[in-house]
Amino acid sequence: MEAQPVGQWLDELASKASTPGGGAGAAMNAAVGAALVSMVCNLTIGKPKYAEHEATMTEALAKAEDLRARALGLAADDAAAFDAVVAAYKLPKATDEEKQARTAAIQAALVGAAEVPLRTAALAAEVIDVAASILEGANTNVISDIAVAASSAKSALESGVVNVEVNLASMSDEQLRKETEARLTEYTPATGRADALIAQVRERLAR
User: Fold this and answer.
1) CATH code at 92?
2) What is the pLDDT of residues 21-45, one digit of tens each?
3) Is the residue at 169 inside a domain?
4) Which among 43, 87, 160, 202 is placed 20 to 30 Å from 191, CA to CA?
5) φ and ψ at 138, to 5 degrees?
6) Does residue 38 sit within a domain?
7) Given a cut of 80, is residue 3 above it in pLDDT?
8) How many Cβ atoms sit within 10 Å of the Cβ of residue 113?
9) Cα gap 161→29, rounded to integer Å
10) pLDDT tens per residue, range 147-181
11) What are all long-range contacts of 54-61, with beta carbons under 8 Å and residues at least 24 apart?
12) Of 107, 152, 123, nearest to 64 (Cα)?
């Protein structure tokens, strides 16, 4: 993912191939959000006017870079997880034994396919929180990019939720479904925090 040209990746996303798909797109949105946080930090660090916020910006930059790398990894993981689901559905089902093995493989693959967007949602929530942490001390010339970072991360989170839900719908393990849904609810409140951050930025820009 890291070495692949953006245009080539978008061509693959637009093609008839099943991967990359929406899950990978969600992770890439999270990566964009994290990259924008890094940009704001880089354009603030070292400027005397914002010296009192240097430590906050430096810490946020390190977090954002880590999140961006992890998001790229999730984009690749999502494609692999979906391919595993497709492969499981293609397993033979001529005998009862094959049917049982196929069903077990499908369920295992669905668990993996739900786990990746769940991690994407968690990561996107982190991006939103890191973006919020830099608003107070950010270079005022680029605070609009904090709002764009929050918007991108919010999109990633909401997309992650949808991709978790679509896999949950086919999972037969009720207990695992409930546990996954409970984990998901830990991250969804971050969408409200993103909206609040965007509103704060827009209010400042209107002054």
Assistant:
1) 1.20.120.680
2) 999 999 999 999 999 999 999 999 9
3) yes
4) 43
5) -75, 150
6) yes
7) no
8) 28
9) 14
10) 999 999 999 999 999 999 999 999 888 999 999 99
11) 56/133, 56/134, 56/136, 56/137, 57/134, 57/137, 57/138, 60/130, 60/133, 60/134, 61/37
12) 123
How far is Cα 9 from Cα 15, in angstroms, rounded to an integer? 10
Q: Please indicate, yes or no, if residue 9 is contained in any of the structural domains.
A: no
Count the neighbouring beta carbons within 10 Å of the beta carbon of residue 43. Answer: 16
* Residues contacting residue 117 through CB under 8 Å, at least 6 positions apart: 23, 26, 78, 159, 160, 161, 162, 163, 164, 167
- Burial class of 22 by CB neighbour count within 10 A (0 to 12, 13 to 18, 19+): middle
Is this model's pTM higher than 0.90 or not? Answer: yes
CA dihedral 105, 107, 111, 112 (to 10 degrees): 20
Residue 149 CB partners (closer than 8 Å, separation 6+)? 32, 33, 34, 36, 37, 40, 127, 131
Does the residue 78 lie in any domain?
yes
Our count of domains for the chain comes to: 1
Residue 48 near residue 178, CB atoms below 8 Å:
no
